[in-house]
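Why do we care about 3D structure at all? Because function follows from shape, and shape follows, mostly, from sequence. That is the central idea of this module. The next example makes it concrete: a single protein chain, its amino acid sequence, and then its structure expressed as tokens.
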Amino acid sequence: MRYIFNSPEMHLWHHAMEIPEDRRFGVNFGITLAIWDYLFGTGVVPRIDGAIKLGFDDLEHFPKHFLGQSIYGFSKYRRSLPSVIQESSKS
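And the structure:
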């Protein structure tokens, strides 16, 4: 069942401060169905102890209002895309 339905332990890793280095674009995107993450290779549950730090870098600059939060990911992605491409070409 854990490969079909998302669990709280799996969803925690979506919000983890530190994710596995080989998954730099994120993990566990499925809201209810974990099967999509396992099919697309984004499913990760390294350990199930609940003692993980949640959040992300630069949290103090994260918008406080709904509209700013809604568009934050798109604007940050556009700014960081060239550096991500450059980093991956170095590998």
